[in-house]
Amino acid sequence: MDLGLFTYRLKFEDDGVGVERILEFKAPDPTKALSIAKTEAADRYAELWQETKRICRLRPNEDTFSPLM
After folding, report:
1. Structure pTM?
2. Alpha carbon of 24 to those of 2, 51, 53: distances in Å?
3. Beta bridge partner(s), residue 11
4. Residue 50: is it exposed, middle or buried by C-beta count within 10 angstroms (0-12/13-18/19+)?
5. Could you give phi then psi for residue 42, rounded to 5 degrees?
6. What residues does each domain of the chain span?
């Protein structure tokens, strides 16, 4: 059982760097999810989602992200 873990999805588009895909993973909070997402999406644009809520957009090879509030 995944007590205290939330499901996150990292959505990638077919962007010439890679194909469209969705990476689903579990994390205890948005901070840890963002850390995982930044590692997985280091060279691509991606969107981080928690369930049906989009958390942010990630930019390739930058230590920045675009929060969606």
Report:
1. 0.79
2. 14, 10, 14
3. 22, 47
4. middle
5. -55, -30
6. 6-67
53-58 vs 46-50, strand pairing mode: antiparallel
Q: What is the pLDDT of residues 47-65, one digit of tens each?
A: 999 989 999 999 886 555 5
User: Can you tell me the distance from the alpha carbon of 60 to that of 18, in angstroms, rounded to the nearest whole number?
Assistant: 12
Distance of alpha carbon 11 from alpha carbon 17, whole angstroms: 14
Q: What is the 3-state secondary structure (H, E, C) of the chain?
A: CCCCCEEEEEEECCCCCCCCEEEEEEECCHHHHHHHHHHHCCCCCEEEEECCEEEEEECCCCCCEEECC
